[in-house]
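Two proteins follow. First one:
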Amino acid sequence: AAAAALALVPGPAGAVTIERVVAVVNEEIITLTEVQEEGQAAAARLAAAGEGPGRPGPAAPERQILEELIGRRLLLQEATRDKIQVEEAEVAAALEDLRAQNGLADEAALEAALRRERLTLPQFRRRLRDQLAIGKLLSRKVRGTIILTDAELETYYRTHPLEFTLTGQVQLRHLLVAVPKVGDPEAEATAASRASEALAALMAGAPFAAVAARYSDAPTAAQGGELGVLRQGELAPELERVAFSLLPGEMSTPIRTAAGYNILLVEAKEAPVLPFPQVRDRIRDRLFRQKAEKRYQDYLAEVRQKAYIEVKLP
């Protein structure tokens, strides 16, 4: 049984290496060395990004890495069946783009960066060629099959209004009855009594501006408590929660904060919604990504279903 899980792999200078086979994918094998190399490269990337341990180790369980390799091998086999080819010029161009994007001055700098990820340049070129082949395959089998209609975009816009609503704003008046000595029961009782009087006057129909001018200890008392238009994030959190829950014309009961007792009046409220033409492309991109992800999973499941896969890793 053990022999069935081993394979002879040609090595340098005609040498033959005995490798442990961890999976058979149609007529091809995946070896334990491939799984370990993939894990070491991933761990090195995490360590370089400060997300992994200082000493590179497996970034994921071997079985998880193996599943990813099986999926990749299946897609490469499909690309071969579809006669998809990647020219050397395409690999060179992609390599140059990656070098420039990562600010690497020359090929020596690129090779040094690859060594930190436990990769050689020839290994990376092979991986890049495979990625380009898979990309071409998915363009044909996944992305090229997705159709989005204007009706779908408009339906998404209508059914997800909060995604296209800008930060809300309210026009407020504010009354503050201050508590000058925190922890002083007498001062607390006096402030609470004055806040109750102010609320009673408001409930009886007195204009908020007049009540604020009489009772408020805030700097805006002389302006009838007018705060003007405020956006979300510009009020103290305990006041903001109440202010944005009220409808225009509604008034709060006294709200206790560190400063004292607060009463709010919402005079106007606005939450502008972006028009559909302005967000059409954003919606299209989002729905396309959603459909592409689902189509990719469906396509990979179809490929796996018709393939012969034998996993020898516990």
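Second one, unrelated to the first:
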Amino acid sequence: MTGAIHQPHPVLRDYLAGPMVGYDITLSADQVHLGVPRATATLIIAFEDPLDVGWFGERESQKLWASASGLHLFPALIRTHGLQRGIQLQLTPLGCRSLFGAPLAELAGHSVDLVELPRGLTEYEYARIAEQTEWPQRFAVLESLLLNRLDAFSMPADIRRAWRLLCHGCGVAQTAADVGWSRRYLNTRVHSEIGISPKQLSRLARFSRARTLVGEGSSLADAAYAAGFADQSHLSREWHVLAGQSPTKEQEFPFLQDLQYPDTAA
């Protein structure tokens, strides 16, 4: 399992939630990755073979060279066919709007080909990235394309603040009060822009915090307490529902979103 990471240009900080992750994995042909729900959209640019992605509990899948998946409350199934090679990004609501011309709500619960979005990645842009043979060059071309396509779209400050508060553990009632809305209006605005309710967004963010803590070495009990779960059993149940398997099983095989290569950062 090899790859690289790249911290994007500071200008992209509000648009991307984390680094660009390049991955190159050889597996058994029947191996399946699980795409875990997050509070951000996932963008994948695949090389060599298209991404074969479906959803937990469903038989159908799509094969996509460049895809974006919105927020969801169940894992995606990525059939590897023995090889996974590509770049993954996490998009914020502002990033989805400004880079690709669509609200996160349009992607909620499914994956789309990037060419289908209002300002989607073109075949020429994809080819420029894919023709590169080294990670630094791939990242450089992708970053340049993203910087050049930034739109002047300005998401209202209140909905951006609501998203940030919910993602950082603020309760629904407190978030509504902070931005000066009723809980009903908060629900309407968040669902319209992001595609899920404030309560569901808070749930995804809490689960992500717990998974991060476990990945950093915390016990399930400590992670559950720190992330705001009632107890370890509560966290374990959420893990089964949202990740499709137990925390112990996850540690045996990493999720695509978790692949990090600090020794090969580009």
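SUMMARY FIELD: The domain at 157-250 is CATH 1.10.10.60 (Arc Repressor Mutant, subunit A). Strands lie at 2-6, 20-26, 32-35, 41-46, 51-55, 61-64, 66-69, 76-79, 83-91, 111-113.
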